[in-house]
Amino acid sequence: MIGLKSLLKKAWPATDACKHAEQAEHLAIADSLLAEVDYQIKELESMHREQDAERRRQETGVDYSWLVSVMPKTYDIPQLERLELEELCYKVNKVECGKIIALFRDAMIREHPVNEIARIMRSCVLQVIEHRPHEESMMEWMAKRTMSLSNLRIRISPRVEPTAGSDGIEDVEMQNTQHREHRAMSVPDFSVTRLPV
User: Fold this and answer.
1) Is 80 a domain residue?
2) How many domains does the chain have?
3) How far is 44 from 109, CA to CA, in rounded Å?
């Protein structure tokens, strides 16, 4: 006999698939944001190396860069700071990813020290998350709906009384006893006239 749990797992596997797809999406977003940080760090370091080599070349007049066989050590984000940044990037939606990268690249136009790049990304992520529209909870939604419904209560009087006009005529239909042949000025005349053939 098949167990109930295995039967339910076969019947509704979509919930696990949705969770895995959402997790994979958030991981991809976090990876892309961290890859952007790593790329900017490498670009900044290579720019500093080129500037140092050019400065040495101008001071000595000789280029010894072809003798260098070992690449200089690159900057690594401290582990705790990287984990905090990963956790923060995991909260980002796919719609916000482009905004964060654009903000980060705009901030990177000015030259910054290499150790501040991760903090700049962190501030960009926080800025986008803080400006995220507020999602109302179920209690807030219910409170707002009951308030709007309570304002809509109409008090209907059981007595019906005609209103009296300024000239003493009580009924609107009784105001004009003769039939009107022309339309009011606010309504256009759409009467059809036949043209002679």
Assistant:
1) yes
2) 1
3) 11
